[in-house]
Fold:
Amino acid sequence: MEEVARFVIEQKRLTEQLKKLRAKLRSLAKRAGDIRQRDSLTDVGGKSYTRSEGSRKNVRDVFAANAKRVEEALRVLEEFTKLTGPGLGRSFKAIRYKVYDLEKKGYQALERFD
Structure:
């Protein structure tokens, strides 16, 4: 999402908001768990690649796919961190709702770009 805002539609404010959100998310993710626990070589989803993942028609599709992926990931993080720290769950939810807002702004900018 950030790269589309920065390099395609050249929206400085939106780019800055997405960058700030990404930094906040990185900080929260560090508190939530350790990536070293993941065994990517044996991950059962590692080889999954659906037909819809294989192509995009335009930049709007790239932006939309990334927005949905971020929102889904935030929802998963929100739910799983409720097991270890409810405060983290609330934080991930707040970020998810901010992403919804930035997604809308991105779509509006893309309409003007088209």
Remarks:
- The first helix runs from residue 2 to 8.
- The chain has one domain: 2-32+58-113.
